[in-house]
Please model this.
Amino acid sequence: MTAQLNPRGDVAVLVPAAGAGVRLGPGAPKALRLLAGEPLLVHAVRRIAAAPSVHTIVVAAPAADVESVRAMLGAVAPVTVVPGGAERQASVAAALAAVPVGPEIVLVHDAARALTPPELVESVAAAVRDGHDAVIPVLPVVDTIKEVDAAERVLGTVDRSALRAVQTPQGFRRSVLVAAHRSAGDALTDDAGLVEKQGGAVTCVPGSELALKITRPFDLALAEHLLTTGA
Model:
């Protein structure tokens, strides 16, 4: 059954999904790898579409797969699919350019975080709606972190109380994200990093354990297990 987006919503979600995902091993582009029989991208879009504030979803797909991705997602939700770029930043810029007039909150989400709950989408959007220019979901860092030199000698222990692990979706006022991409120099893998480089303020909200990034075969196995438990 195809989900219906909210025509009165104020949120557009961009999904850069053109990456190769080499750490998952050889095979299809990462967003098109299967999780419980369905591509990661399908899982991700299904959860985004379930968030009540979402007006528009734009996916930046591998250029060679645009038509097949469009057909695949047509049964999930009304999604705009555009060709992505060689780097993530180029894919986000291409998706951003395809957002129609209307939504003034733009979220950028990794297809690899395929189990991200709709509630996290709403939480990030709400923080932007409350007046923050840029918002990122985060989790506390629980491992001990060591600083090391080039020879792998330990230089010291980092105070983890001030550290956070960053997730997606990252949220922005539309004008802020547009300006950040217009002024982008070196490619970054983090859109909030572009805003930081421009001197903008980035605010944190609590993330979700379910928004894990599927990068390695172990992550895929963990996500499969989570799905069997009702995630």
